[in-house]
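[job 4471] stage=fold_predict status=RUNNING
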Amino acid sequence: MMIFYTVVLFIIFAVFIFIVETAFVVLSPFFKEKEIPFDPDLRDAEEKDYEPSVTKENVFFNVKNERIDAYLYLPDKYSEPLPCIIMNTGFGGTKEMFLERYAKVFNSAGFAVLTYDYRHFGKSEGNPRQLYSMNKQLEDCAAAIKFARSRKEIHADKIIIWGTSGGAGYGLIIAASDNRIACISCQCGALDHKADSQLAIRRDGFLSYLPLIFHGQRDKARQRFGLEPHHIPIVGTPGKPAIIKAPGAYEGYSRIASEGAKNKLCAQIMLTPHKNPINYAHKVKCPVLVQVCENDNVANPVGSMNTANILGDKALVKKYPIGHFDIYFGKNFQQSVEDQIVFFKNNV
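[job 4471] inference complete, writing structure tokens
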């Protein structure tokens, strides 16, 4: 009988602690949102002055009754169904962030291109806004592929999955179960979340991320009670309460951020499990281009190299002696895109 009462008291105590901790996290002023807007003065001059393409078509498709907003780019002249590049932007990004520059170059090389906004971001539907869900984004990518295959201008068996940074691993996960994918391009990719976490913790220390976990609890609890979401910044300078705070990350992201881009995500991301792309590499049957920024302090280059080792002879590795955000600009952009086009033409 004594054991029974002890167990009951323990359960009551645990519930009491949970209620108190939840109330503290939800109501405490210590966990208010801390906004870190992107710096418009850092926005790349090339991006500011960029002339939008007039040849793109605004297209739409649905995922679970939510509409995805996308752009389809076709070359000016073509005479047969085209290979199509499905472009997946990075962590917290939208299709308005620099993707059109890639699309125009790929068009000139004879490829169709489909860019799109993940649900909860940009012009696509989905509430709450700025909610990151890897599972949902993988569903969006699969739906983009299905849409592309439905178009008469596109060759259904010549689909290329392109991804950068946080979206670079989506092609690996999709191709692990879709053997019709022609090839994949992983640019400065977060391909091994364990390696990325080790890099971040070595640099910033585990304790610097502990407050973000409390922010995540606050967002989750507010969701349960039907309250407005609670956000944390995507990037910040070292020491700031942000998901990514590697030196130069805030400045780099500000350079590629489109006008009106939001530097925030729903904080529950800190409590949400994600699929790890490297775990799917052994199932991939198609060729994969792995582009590694050797001085990357955001996506651990070790993760890309380990993934390439698992892919074996299916992987073509290209290394660049640059940082994570350098690949989007100037000669680094030109070189990386040239390498991608050669790889695509060899594999479709």
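[job 4471] summary: Strands lie at 57-63, 66-73, 82-88, 112-116, 154-164, 181-187, 231-232, 265-266, 288-293, 315-320.
[job 4471] exit 0
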